[in-house]
């Protein structure tokens, strides 16, 4: 086996082991300290004590954190590949906030209540936002440059955030729930909340992972990719659709969680390189591990309360974003 392949296989095993360790830690960590006997009993379906009930509640939370982190990490890698922009991220490009605005409007004006209505509305909002940002970023000379897309996405996020406040402000009946959801978190997860979103996540994961070869072609530049027989617009649209499915579905369940899609692909490139056939699955695994770790940290540092995972990722992601901006020359973006 060549050295790069051995290195990637080693990182794959280490990442898988870290996910197993983090999952065990997540099940065991919370406002109550529980013993191994209670953990084993709860995982075996026996919920007879408060400690066992606490463990049973942490299991769906752990699963949702893994799914959300994997989806956002993979979506971030897809968006960076589609736009060839190192600053691309579902939050920075306005996709998460577009999904959020759509859900808020749906709740406030159309009284949507079912899980599937939330999911379809969020995916629609994410898609419209992505198209809007791309159109705005394409205006002027040079087309959709990475810098123009980042600026258009940032402006769109701010505008949509203000619209969310404007929609919620006169509605005291929904304001509390919307504000809590807007922070972004995996607390209160149940299997009933997770099951409706699984088909959308499965479709998003499959479409995104199958786009790896096309993203490798797009990385060479549009003209060279077209010369190799790639339909550039179609390849870009299909990959972006997979990312939109992932972002919209997770935002519907967890609220907008920022910066994860920015951090994870950069870290994974350091480990496995720029080949999207490796980068995409590693970004999914890395995102799952990072979000689960952030959720665990949020439970530990604020005992007996907890910090929502969206707050923890913001604390980590904002300095990382500043570092990326300072590291990249503006003319190279």
UniProtKB/TrEMBL annotation:
Recorded superkingdom: Bacteria
Gene Ontology biological-process annotations: siderophore-iron import into cell
Single GO molecular function: transmembrane transporter activity
Alphabetical list of Pfam families matching this protein: FecCD (PF01032)
Ranges that cross the membrane: 62-79, 91-112, 118-137, 149-169, 194-212, 233-258, 278-297, 309-326
Gene3D superfamilies per record: ABC transporter involved in vitamin B12 uptake, BtuC (1.10.3470.10)
Topology with respect to the bilayer: Multi-pass membrane protein
SUPFAM superfamilies named in the record: ABC transporter involved in vitamin B12 uptake, BtuC (SSF81345)
Listed GO CC annotations: plasma membrane
Subcellular location field: Cell membrane
Record bears the keyword Membrane: yes
Keywords: Cell membrane, Membrane, Transmembrane, Transmembrane helix, Transport
Family membership noted in the UniProt record: Belongs to the binding-protein-dependent transport system permease family. FecCD subfamily.
Name by which UniProt lists this protein: Iron ABC transporter permease
Species of the source: Ectorhizobium quercum
Lineage start: Bacteria, Pseudomonadati, Pseudomonadota, Alphaproteobacteria, Hyphomicrobiales
